[in-house]
User: Fold TraY domain-containing protein from Antarcticibacterium flavum.
Amino acid sequence: MKVTVTFKLDKELLEELKKQAKRNKRSLNNYVELILSKVVEKQPNDDTVEALDEALNNKDLKPITDIDKFLNSTK
Assistant:
């Protein structure tokens, strides 16, 4: 389901988006939606953020000695 959204953009940014959309043979709406989807997809979820924090700060890390056993334990 799609919804209509209204927001303001810098005029030069809008012109560049229109050019890029045309170059990519897309409508402006489709091109902006594609760009926003890519940005949102790149954001890690909460579990990933927590795991990264643990890894970066060496919090309660235990070495994995048997990868098959580890993978089976997460199911």
Q: What stands out?
A: Residues 23 and 33 are 16 Å apart (CA to CA).
